[in-house]
Amino acid sequence: MSMPKGHKSTHGYATVTSIESGMDYRTIADTMTESGYKMNHATARNIFLRAMKKMATQIYDLYDLPSDEDDITRTAKHPRFQESLFEFLDEINS
What is the pTM of this model? Predict the structure, then answer.
């Protein structure tokens, strides 16, 4: 029996590999494990999404937008939100 395909959002999947220097969750987990922090790909994804939720919460607060946990989670998982944060942080670092 094959694995289920999952749900594809309206705007596609958010993947960290779409960015030139990005890594997928499994590569992140392997790198962390080699560094002494035992981690699997699901944990890497959960940590990444937790960070995205913290940033989404701050943006909702900054603009006084009404939000609940579902709104913040949906925003944090949104591919365009993640890409825009990458571009913003990349611009700050350069």
Answer: 0.76
